[in-house]
What does this fold into?
Amino acid sequence: MIYFDNAGGSQVPRVVADAMHDYMLQSYVQLGADYPMSRKCTQVVEDAHTFINLFMNGTDTGKVILGSSCTQHLFMLAECYAQVMRKGDEIIISRMGHDANVCPWKRMEQRGFTIRMWEIDTETYSCPLEQLETLLSDRTRIVALPHVSNMLGGIVNVKAVAQIAHRVGARVVVDGVAYASHRAIDVSGWDIDWYIYSTYKVYGPHMSAMYGKQSALEEITGPNLDFIPKGEIPYKFELGGVNHEGCAGLLALGKYLNFLTGRDADDLCDRQTIEEAFDIITALELPLQQRIIGYLLAKPGVSVVGPNHGEASRVATICFRSESVSSAKINAAICRANIGARHGHMYAPGLCEKLDIDLSDGVARVSLLHYNTMEEVERLIEVLEEIL
Ligand SMILES: Cc1ncc(COP(=O)(O)O)c(C=O)c1O
It folds into this structure.
């Protein structure tokens, strides 16, 4: 099988799977008690938070909250803000968003908040910063956007977005799901308030991580039980606690990043290792995305839905359409060849409508990661040659 459905979820390295297996068989007890094994488990969960915070480069600026999915985190975050915002306060939502970072905010309209859509330029497949400036007001509290659209693949300059939004004191909520498997996250360097990604798309277990900047964490209250103090973070935001074996898996990701950079698996995985590992990941992906996009662009009647180049300012999540063959048919041919891929609206129905894409047929998508190979890409191209 060829795995080209990585924007849906990545594969896990054996060290991650082994760590979860070993944790469950060797130390599967509850946290927070005084006996040695419970202390050990508590430490694993704490260490996983610390490591993921380093992974996002938020160690000195904020904290990481773990949860079950990005969708769950974003609905929780919206609910927390609904408790502290005033009627008439404004929320700006990027048109490029996956519905996980659209619906939670859009629903707040029913509660008296004002929603403003940040529209997409359908030529460049980006939401222009100048338009964001015109949408902002002194009532803007939230700007919600994806770092990369899981349909378009272009990388958004979130640092510039944060600079603009912060001028009026708005919080920036970045959905990093489609970015995090391809490039190193740097919440401090970009000055992001909230950054969320799904760990199952980044070589890990089926969980999600949400970084909150310290000042942002202080302005809302997490929903966990009443006896838990507001300042007890992350617990106040982790309803009932987190997936313990998943935490063991998250920690083991460091071993894989060490391996990618040629270090010993058991070395300390520091920030430099993380950045080097993602430079290697990027370098491995670039030729693959260039080959696919180059092939698609040369094909008459076929269009790439997203930036039409294979450069590093986009990732290897590639959507396309044909004038003569439906996306469903293209995808069926790909899947028949035992290549994992998908078609449809990619959970971004609002974006599809703006791009005039039929919601039921949508786009065909192949999404690659560093472990894919040029041979696999050539096999895909053979299949596409036949169906297109
Ligand atoms: C860009 C993007 N945002 C959010 C999500 C939702 O993530 P989760 O499955 O963790 O809720 C996805 C899932 O595919 C996604 O691709």
About this structure: The longest helix spans residues 271-297. Residues 7, 69-71, 98, 100, 146, 150, 175, 177-178, 198, 208 surround pyridoxal-5'-phosphate (CB under 6 Å). The radius of gyration is 21 Å. The chain has two domains: 2-10+272-387, 14-257.
